[in-house]
Specification:
The protein is α+β, with helices and mostly antiparallel strands and about 220 residues long. The protein contains six helices and ten strands. The protein has a six-stranded antiparallel beta sheet with strand order 1-6-7-8-10-9, with helices on both faces. The chain has a four-stranded antiparallel beta sheet with strand order 2-3-5-4, covered by helices on one side. A hairpin with an 8-residue loop joins β9 and β10. Pfam families: BMC.
Length: about 220
């Protein structure tokens, strides 16, 4: 079943060409991390996915990534959104290349799906065919492995994850216990690319069934 896509918006982007050493110390940067790139976005999970893509297309590392409480609709300001991501690299050019990868992912590579016309009931069933350094580190897997990145509201997330794990030869790497900072839940699952896609499909179809019949058990 095709569900409408819900894309995220990048709200603010900045590059620090030569980061202050005091700030570098507090951020625990390595010696080659001389430049920073940062952005805010309206969806944290799309932001994390985009950060991982940045590590694959530029010589950068993710040095800070954090969700904000209560989600984008209750942010601290018009440019805050739902999370902030910071990448670091040896030169401003590498950082800009990383931010370009972030922008490309947000524009066309990652999206939530809507279960209702109002687009208020959402799920994220995204397959990363080949992980970069960020998500592989988070999941505890080797770089280049496949991941199913699955997110939904609390009950739907748990119910959908059980179905996803039973539907394919995948392993749960990281459980995002609900409620998260943004009141969702989910997990990272790993396996072959085809297994991750099967798990994501099962997750989606199970949650569609819950949305259609929320009180039938």
């Amino acid at each position: 079943m095709h569900l409408p896509h819900v894309k995220a918006d990048i709200l603010a982007v900045r590059v620090i060409a030569n980061v202050d050493q005091g700030l570098a110390g507090k951020l625990k940067l390595q010696s080659h991390h001389r430049s920073l790139g940062m952005f805010t976005i309206t969806s944290d999970d799309i932001g994390y996915t985009a950060l991982d893509e940045a590590t694959k297309y530029a010589d950068v590392d993710v040095v800070y990534a954090k969700s904000f409480y209560a989600g984008a609709n209750y942010s601290s300001g018009p440019l805050s959104g739902e999370m902030i991501g910071v990448i670091a690299g040896p030169t401003p050019e590498q950082v800009r290349s990383g931010l370009e990868a972030v922008e490309t992912t947000v524009e066309s590579g990652a999206f939530f799906e809507a279960l209702d016309e109002e687009k208020s009931h959402l799920l994220y069933a995204h397959v990363v065919s080949r992980t970069g350094s960020y998500l592989s580190s988070l999941a505890g897997i080797e770089e280049g492995e496949a991941l199913a990145y699955l997110i939904a509201p609390p009950l739907e997330a748990i119910y959908g994850l059980d179905a996803a794990l039973k539907a394919a030869d995948v392993t749960i790497c990281e459980l995002f216990e609900p409620p998260s900072e943004t009141n969702y839940g989910g997990a990272l699952l790993t396996g072959s690319q085809s297994a991750c896609r099967a798990a994501a499909d099962a997750f989606r179809e199970t949650i569609i069934e819950v949305a259609k019949h929320p009180l039938h058990y």
